[in-house]
Amino acid sequence: MTWEERWHPLREEWVVIAAHRQDRPWSGETFPVEEKALPDFVADCYLCPENTRVSGNVNPDYNQIFVFDNDHPSVDLNAPVNATPPSPVYKAKPAHGTSRVVCYSPKHNLTLTELSVAEIENLIRVWQAQYLDLGALVEIEHVLIFENKGDAVGVSNPHPHCQIYANNFVFKTIANEARSSHAHFAETGNILFQEIIQAEQTDGRRIIAENDTAIAFLPYFARYAYEVFVAPKATHPHIAAMSAGEITDLASVLKTVLVKLDNLWRMPFPYVMVLHQAPTDGGDYDAFHFHVEFHPPLRKPNLLKYLAGPEIGGGNFLSDTSPEEKAAELQSMSDVHYKQEGST
Question: One of 142, 161, 238, 295 is an active-site residue; which one?
Answer without folding.
Answer: 161
